[in-house]
């Protein structure tokens, strides 16, 4: 369609947005995300879509039921695609730091 799209990896490791977590994803939830994003798209709901899903070969420890019994699960990475992943927080951080150059870059990129 000639539009601009962005890619994002979920499960590839920690980022500034991981909130202190390990930044890893498990296959179970990654499959659910992939299927749900496609279902929403085909129902006509504008949503982020999953472009690909790969297993990492690594085990990721998660407490699936939050009952204090974490288990090892297969790791995975989902490549998400959307017209934009820009959030309000993208502007808050450079603004709070007084980084006007970065703030201007974000604004210019968003408007373009």
UniProtKB/TrEMBL annotation:
Pfam families linked to this entry: SelO
Any GO molecular function: AMPylase activity
Family annotation (InterPro entries): SelO
Keyword Transferase: yes
Cofactor: Mg(2+)
Highest taxon, organism lineage: Bacteria
Keyword field: ATP-binding, Magnesium, Metal-binding, Nucleotide-binding, Nucleotidyltransferase, Transferase
Nucleotide-binding as UniProt keyword: yes
Family: Belongs to the SELO family.
Protein name per UniProt: Selenoprotein O
């Amino acid at each position: 369609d000639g539009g601009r799209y962005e890619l994002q990896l979920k499960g590839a490791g920690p980022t500034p947005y991981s909130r202190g977590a390990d930044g890893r994803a498990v296959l179970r939830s990654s499959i659910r995300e992939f299927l749900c994003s496609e279902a929403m798209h085909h129902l006509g709901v504008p949503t982020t879509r999953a472009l690909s899903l790969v297993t990492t070969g690594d085990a990721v420890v998660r407490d699936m039921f939050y009952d204090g019994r974490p288990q090892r699960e297969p790791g995975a990475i989902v490549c998400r695609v959307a017209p934009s992943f820009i959030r309000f927080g993208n502007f808050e951080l450079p603004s709070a730091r007084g980084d006007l150059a970065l703030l201007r870059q974000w604004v210019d990129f968003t408007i373009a």
